[in-house]
Amino acid sequence: MRIEETPRRRRLVSLTPLIDVVFILLIFFMLASTFVEWQAFGVDAPAEGAADAEQDEEPLRLHVTTDGYRIGDESVAADDLRSRFEEAYEADADRRLLVIPAAGAPVRAVIRALDSAALAGLEDVAVLREEEEG
After folding, report:
1. Is residue 71 within 8 Å of residue 84, measured between CB atoms?
2. Model-level pTM greater than 0.85?
3. What is the pLDDT of residues 29-79, one digit of tens each?
4. How far is CA 99 from CA 13, 17, 60, 111, in A?
5. How many other C-beta atoms lie within 10 A of the C-beta of residue 117?
6. Domain 60-127, what architecture?
7. CA distances from residue 81 to 2, 12, 15, 105 in whole angstroms, order as listed
8. Closest CA to 100 of 68, 126, 124
9. Helix (H, G, I), strand (E, B) or coil at 98
10. Where do the domains of the chain lie?
11. What does residue 97 show for φ and ψ, rounded to 5 degrees?
12. Separation of alpha carbons 121 and 104, rounded Å
């Protein structure tokens, strides 16, 4: 006598546990994430050749180079920008700051200069193209 074995049915893979894990991960990352509120910093770019008749004092010019920052002929460290802005604007808070990035200067350096100006409380800030020599 021969016993016939019934063929085993393949078990179907249930997707329910997989979906549960995906939802748990989704909830975890939603709760663990931090949402930073980005601060807006307004910058105006004056028209070329426009002269400020209302400005009594020469604006402070910050040159952003590939090597760092320069105010006039003096090199300034990135960590000292805020204190330099505060010193320069103690006497005249309405003085304009001109940020002039050189060709090839990192955007990160320009943003850091703008952030330092905002932290120092400066309101009249403009970004200009580098002046052409000639």
Report:
1. yes
2. no
3. 888 887 766 666 565 655 555 554 455 568 888 999 888 899 888 888 988
4. 62, 57, 9, 10
5. 23
6. 2-Layer Sandwich (3.30)
7. 93, 65, 57, 17
8. 126
9. strand
10. 60-127
11. -110, 125
12. 28
